[in-house]
């Protein structure tokens, strides 16, 4: 959300991911946190916004592992260093489902709203489509980099089809380098953070271009298929479905090394070209517009 790029300008070893994603309770159903100074620009990365709201919602349920979906809207930008106050409303606590609504306030204005739903485990039929076929992380020979608290192996988009479209606009192996222990709340909050690590995958006509657009997340949804171990390798596969009218609609999925889905996501992004701006070349191989 509201950033030119989603990787850090400081040494990852100096970062405190847990402070950045954790919302601490200050009174009944009210939580607080601070957005870190990690990124270029004057607007905070949306992954922090999602993770903090999710952290607050998870802090009000007995079984955080029952989380199955979140749906959020970005209303206003926030700046690195801003203090956030997150109020959680307990909409429902039923026998099977619990629902929470969060409202994030920054400098006296509402910046993000989110619904979170929790479902107690039930028996049911199992079915899953296959995931992208790519080399495993130890064999892929991809471009490696540290993206904040994540180690990332960038595979690039799939080959461009004859009609100019891509089956995948970003494919990357990633794992969190910060030890998250066995706390399911931490792993789920980090998964929420990772769900916004889209790079420029929502701009298929300018995958390798930065600095010529203002890109802003409008809404963000994630469906969780269990509690992932975010310290293990996961494949993030993203697909831009449609762009037009200044917006892009994108969906994606995160799967583990065994091919099991851990979450599915969908997002709509505002894209505005900056008149007279010049593209920035970061010299990164993952900005290629075809497969390596």
What does this 3D model show about the protein?
With 292 residues, the chain is mainly beta. The protein has a single domain, classed as Acyl-CoA thioesterase, double hotdog domain (Porin, Beta Barrel), CATH 2.40.160. It is built from three helices and 13 strands; from the N terminus they run αββαβββββββαββββ. Strands 1-2-4-5-6-3-10-13-12-11-9-8-7 form a 13-stranded antiparallel β-sheet. Helix 2 runs antiparallel to helix 3. The longest helix is centred in the N-terminal third of the chain and has 13 residues. It is globular and about 55 Å long.
Strand runs, count: 13
- Terminal CA distance reads 27 Å
Task: State the CATH topology.
Answer: Porin
Strand content: 35-45%
Classify the helix fraction into a percent range. Answer: under 10%
* Largest sheet data: 13 strands, antiparallel
What is the typical, i.e. mean, pLDDT? 85
What top-tier CATH class fits best?
Answer: Mainly Beta
Shape: globular
N to C succession of SSEs:
HEEHEEEEEEEHEEEE
Total domains: 1
Low-confidence stretches: 1-14, 282-292
Report the structural category.
mainly beta
CATH 2nd-level architecture: Beta Barrel
Q: What is the name of the CATH superfamily? A: Acyl-CoA thioesterase, double hotdog domain
Radius of gyration: 18 Å
| Strand order, sheet with most strands | 1-2-4-5-6-3-10-13-12-11-9-8-7
The number of helical elements comes to 3
